[in-house]
Specification:
The protein is an alpha+beta fold. The chain has helices spanning 2-29, 33-51, 59-71, 78-81, 128-139; strands spanning 83-85, 106-112, 115-120, 146-147, 160-167, 170-180, 186-196. A hairpin with a 5-residue loop joins β6 (170-180) and β7 (186-196). The longest helix has 28 residues, at 2-29. The two termini are 34 Å apart. 25% of the residues are buried.
């Protein structure tokens, strides 16, 4: 619960900061009184657009749905699950904003009937550690579900991290690649892979 409260506070601050940035940008760009009124209206419009994103796009709900399908042996269907757009937290707030200050885009891609990936397409202010904890909490996973992997052999752990968790009937792999955008902003690209047993080559097989 403490994590969820912290994420709510961070999301609220991030949203207010984004809207303030947009308003200031338009105020400096358009100096006349009429243009300033236009800037205020634009900021209000963007705020309304933010409110269009709601909890139906909650990433935790999406991951739970996929994990449940894997648990019961249901083939993953690209028609049902493939998606490209904004994913949110439980409050309907986009998980990150990209370097242009707009809600960041995610891609959900069913790779085959037993494997799916979820990844953010752009760098931004995403907090990968907080996101991982949020998803683990939603799936009720603990350290007992963490599986041995090749994480200890990675040559540059400061740039790349991987955790693999056992699910009922499958696994979840959480990968983080840190990078730097063209404007110098450091960010993270996260890929979440869910699949049926056995595990991929960088993990161990789940015991039968």
């Amino acid at each position: 619960m403490q994590l969820l409260s912290a994420m709510k506070i961070h999301a609220s601050i991030r949203k207010e900061s984004f809207l303030s940035f947009v308003l200031i940008y338009y105020l400096f760009t358009f100096s006349s009184c009429g243009s300033r009124q236009k800037a205020i209206e634009t900021a209000r419009f963007l705020q309304n657009q933010e409110e269009l994103y709601h909890a139906d796009n909650d990433i935790a709900m999406t991951v739970r749905s996929l994990a449940d399908a894997i648990k019961v042996g249901e083939p993953l269907d690209s028609v049902e699950y493939d998606f490209r757009g904004v994913l949110t937290d439980g409050q309907g707030t986009p998980l990150y904003t990209d370097i242009n200050g707009v809600p960041g885009i995610w891609d959900i891609n069913v790779l085959d009937n037993g494997k799916v990936s979820i990844r953010n397409l752009y760098l931004g202010d995403l907090l990968p550690a907080d996101l991982e904890l949020y998803i683990l909490e939603s799936l009720k996973l603990t350290a007992d579900n963490l599986l041995p992997s090749l994480a200890d052999t990675i040559s540059n752990p400061a740039k790349y991290a991987i955790n693999i968790y056992a699910l009922s009937g499958g696994y979840m792999k959480y990968e983080v690649v840190k990078d730097t955008a063209s404007n110098g902003l450091e960010g993270a690209l996260v890929t979440i892979t869910l699949g049926v047993s056995p595990l991929p080559e960088d993990g161990i097989r789940i015991a039968a």
